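Reading a protein record of the kind used here takes only a little practice. Each token is a code from a learned vocabulary of local backbone shapes. With that in mind, consider the following protein and its fold in token form:
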Amino acid sequence: MDYKYLLDLALILLSTKLLGLVTRKFKMPQVVGALLAGIILGPACLGIIDNTNFIKALSEIGVIVLMFSAGMESDIHQLKKAGKASFIIAALGVAVPLVVGFAVAGVFNNPSVIQTDLDTNRFLQNVFIGVILTATSVSITVETLKEMGKLNSQVGITILGAAVIDDILGIIALTVITSLADPSVAVGIVLLKIVGFFAFAIGVGFVTYLAFKKWSDRHIDDHRRFVVMAFVICLLMSFCAEEWFGVADITGAFIAGLILSNTSHAKYMASRFETLSYTLLSPIFFASVGLSVVLTDMSMMIVIFALVLLGVAIITKIVGCGLGAKIAGFNNKESMQIGCGMVSRGEVALIVANKGAAVGLMSPILFGPVVIVVVVTTILSPILLKLSFGKKKKKGGGAGIEDPVLSPPKPAGEAQSQ
């Protein structure tokens, strides 16, 4: 048996911590350091660590736990109030990048500018580039909002709601475009599955909440069993979302967290998951994003396309989501904060790009620009988000954890049982 994975884990944990401290010195979110650690250790720089299946699996669990914790720390009543605003923000946050991304792809993706090796209809290829830009990776934003103590602010809750809706709209867009390229995909069935998932989540969620509450209220002397059962619920919801309904597993994890957020032991359970996340899973997830960066040789025209696509990716999310926020009644500063919070594409865009490549909508030649967009927006999003909130003195007893990735979680309280 090869035990190199132990060395890989040690290097990831050490480098994410050290670079997190360095980025904090420069007044940047520590999660940026974790992302840079993956890039430096991975194929893009030193090539010390490969993004193995083991690391990918752990990183997937890491983002699931991250979103589950975000769900448990969210106020479900405030989330309901933000529903209309979140939908408007998500709708424009999908529409604007889709249209502008399609237009940019139309300029560059033609034989006289960039020659690709695909036989698929070029119009569909260009639409797919726009679909990639609609993606939002909320995990990076969640971590930054936690670090700043803003996760439960009105802006934070609205971003969370918009990101969940964004995922659904993105899935619909991806389904429609891939079905046009792949006749084996039935649009109607997929849309029915999405509706079925939310019906399932409401029904099963209500029953699970009542059963968990009744059971936990009978066993108040041993809190550890609550954490184990909560994790089981999280993993089952994630599995059902992805496997049965074709919805992102992190959406299932977030909803599982919401289900348990109103139980009497939610704070205790959240603190235990923060320990798990901080110790192992979150550093691996964020480093894994950097480890996935593999840049092939690119021509000058490809580099220009990458830079234009990057600019479009950043501006369209800020403008689209910011305009949606303005329509929903937020002021200029809050609209900018929401726009910045939706900039990160993260692993979501890579997953979308891979799905498109499988059905002939994404040329390997154009993967380099997509990777550049993913990496830069992932690093830039927390920086923009922090700048948009401006400098504020931290107050005691605020919204929670400073940085569960790279800073120790706070004690759950002396009175709570182990």
In short: The CA atoms of residues 9 and 323 lie 42 Å apart. The first helix runs from residue 4 to 25. The chain has 16 helices and no strands. Residues 393-418 have pLDDT under 50 and may be disordered.
